[in-house]
Design a protein that fits this description.
Length: 389
Amino acid sequence: MTAPMTPDTLFRSPLIVTASEGHARIDREFFKRMRMFAVRHASSGTEALALARRETVDVIFCDAALGDMDGGTFVAALRADPALAHIPVILAMTDARRADVLSAVKLGAAGLCLRPYSEDTFRKHLAMAAHMARFAAAEKAALARAAAREAAGDPDGARQDYEEVSRTPDDAPRFFEEGMTALAARDVERAILAFHKALAINALFVEAYLGLARAWKAKGSTKQYRHYMKEAASACARANRFVELRDKFVALLGDDEAGFNPFLALGNELLRERHYTSSIVLYRHALELAPKNADIYLGLSKAYHFLRRPDLARRAAHKSLLLNDRNEEARAIHRRLTEGRRPGDIASMEQTAKEAPAPRYPLLLRGVLYLAGIASETLVRPRKTARAA
């Protein structure tokens, strides 16, 4: 037996589907952190389907690899059962490729989560699953109203309900356009409201975050402007849309290369939290916006140093000093990295660094797939990371 989630309720009956006791233990702990204590566990897809049919289940956190079937087969079986089709499913994987992400979207998964994950990432997945559940509940209610009105001889009312069903998934772009129209008319308050409505539907709508940044900048709030620029950068990295959206960031940030750079800010946060490979990705995006910013190269030198890539670390520190020879921190790092080297070694080191392959997008920045239209999990702000025992 299942109970569809209404827009005003939280998940109360999660189901974990995994053959690993270690994974089950970690997943249960994270649900408890979200104050969800009535958590059930099924060790196979078959067991999970049977449990969902006889008990109340409102969200499923499922390993992509199960003993009797894979996660895709499980999601397909769930969607094929009218009594279970509304339940949002988050697939958990230890490895992910772009094909996996696209496959999860086609199957109707609410998210694709890479293990190990952080509490912040887990919370974001549940939030997106909640959005999907709300839309499923709203769609079901609208269809029921339409059928009732049609049976009562009210075709116009039924048509309105059917239109509501078809309109709901596309409301995010509509609200975004309303926000941009309001901004053009200098109605900033209405623009902010419209952008928030778009993000309530699609939490990875980068353009809506940029719209909020523009709106708060117009209101004169530097703090809120920077906050939403960082949110836009975070969503952009998670959705792997930087190349597509680079010009929009450039237009909003202006020509002041020494000014606020959201990708630099996020890179620094990741560096402090010891996610060095992910910080490099953000720093490289930051350089696309501000190629002459010495602080970005300083961050890169630290990240490469901690990843034990001394040649790349020295090159980045050297570039930072070329751009700003007054930065004492960069000078100290450069001195420490070049101790014992001959003066001519710097040029050789730079040539070696140029030939080194650029870092791939780490799984940390590609993993999570939100079905709001785009997707990927990246720990743009990871907190505590748990590993399976």
